[in-house]
Write a structure and sequence with these properties.
With 367 residues, the chain is α+β, with helices and mostly antiparallel strands. 68% of the residues lie in helices and 10% in strands. Helix 6 runs antiparallel to helix 7. The radius of gyration is 40 Å and the shape is elongated.
Length: 367
């Protein structure tokens, strides 16, 4: 039923207005036969229901002569003109309104002469058409504005989704590059030990053959690893990956740049390299976010081991009240969440009741 209401409502308005005009015309004794009025009224109403949206201009042109000669179709003309203003450009609606007003004025002048009823009828007709066209154009502009806002919102959401996806992919690529260095080192050690076992004099021929197979397999694995990971590298990235021991140097760089950074380092011995690399990246991203969103605000960093095998990294900074926060896409935090989830850890971040931004990550490792 709700789908038909937008189509039935204009038809009801047209019928009600047509009946009012026909009643006045019959009362004055100058109207057309009632049967002909009803027939033209039914046809005009059916045209409104069927063609008001798809062919409003053609419908208006067809109704023009009937609306001038008969009372019932005259009630459908304002509705048809409103549909033109709603679904077509403003100049088209204005042109049709001017055409209708011109034709109706000529017919009224011939039928009534330049009398008071003529002036009253012409004035009412012009005011009605101006009102109908203005309301239709206003609604059409409002719809277009709402549609443009909806499209911008959709594009913004799509852009945000793409930025988040790019951040995840970038973080995965960076993790893959880091793992290349780790795996390359370990596989190289495996190849060296296998090579030493292969040339050992005390080893039996079977052991030497097995060691040779291990050495060759390790060599092939290194070549495959270099081929795959080499595509992810960009120029200038062939350098050692930072670890937990490089965090103090990172903090010192921020201090030299003017930031007030406090570092509490507890229990950093014996932390696996992979966990240390992840902790370094978390501190690095947290410092970047703090400089971006709260420049000049003090930053506190705490790195400590937990009872369950793992490392906790906490970074907090006071939000500077005098500095407007820059908008951000959240891509850095998305990358950190991706990194932490890949190693089975937990990441929490957000504002605190005390007016600070707090980031806490827990990174596990196997015992």
């Amino acid at each position: 039923m709700r789908r038909w209401l937008p189509d039935l409502a204009p038809a009801v308005v047209a019928v009600a207005l047509g009946l009012f005009l026909m009643a006045n015309s019959v009362g004055e004794g100058d109207g057309a036969p009632v049967g002909l009025e009803v027939a033209t009224g039914v046809l005009s109403t059916a045209g409104l229901v069927l063609f008001r949206r798809s062919h409003p201009v053609a419908l208006m042109l067809v109704l023009l002569p009937f609306g001038i000669l008969f009372a019932m179709p005259m009630g459908a003309l304002p509705v048809a003109l409103f549909s033109v203003a709603l679904h077509r450009r403003g100049r088209v609606a204005i042109a049709l309104a001017a055409l209708h007003a011109s034709l109706a004025t000529v017919v009224y002048a011939v039928a009534l002469g330049f009398t008071r009823p003529f002036y009253e009828g012409a004035t009412f007709l012009v005011l009605l058409q101006v009102s109908v066209v203005a309301i239709g154009m206003l609604i059409r502009s409002h719809r277009q504005l709402v549609d443009s806002w909806a499209e911008r919102a959709r594009q913004a959401e799509e852009g945000q989704r793409l930025r988040v996806e790019q951040a995840r992919l970038a973080e995965r690529e960076r993790i893959a590059r880091e793992m290349h260095d780790v795996l390359a080192h370990r596989i190289s050690l495996l190849a060296v030990h296998a090579g030493a076992l292969e040339v050992r004099r005390e080893a039996s021929p079977e052991e030497q053959k097995a060691a040779g197979t291990i050495r060759q397999s390790a060599h092939d694995a290194l070549e495959d690893l270099r081929t795959v990971i080499g595509m992810l590298r960009t120029p200038g990235e062939d350098k050692p990956q930072p670890t937990l021991g490089d965090v103090p140097a990172l903090v010192e760089q921020s201090r030299e740049a003017g930031a007030e950074v406090g570092l509490a380092f507890d229990g950093g011995d014996g932390v696996p390299e992979q966990v240390g690399r992840n902790a370094y990246r978390i501190v690095q991203e947290a410092l970047t976010n703090a400089r971006k969103h709260a420049p000049g605000a003090p930053i506190k960093i705490k790195i400590s081991r937990t009872a369950e095998p793992g490392l906790t990294v906490e970074v907090g900074n006071a939000l500077a009240a005098s500095t407007s926060r820059l908008p951000g896409a959240g891509a850095g935090l998305t990358g950190l969440r991706e990194r932490v989830q890949l190693v089975g850890g937990r990441l929490e971040h957000g504002p605190t009741p005390s007016g600070e931004f707090h980031l806490k990550a827990w990174l596990p490792w196997a015992t």
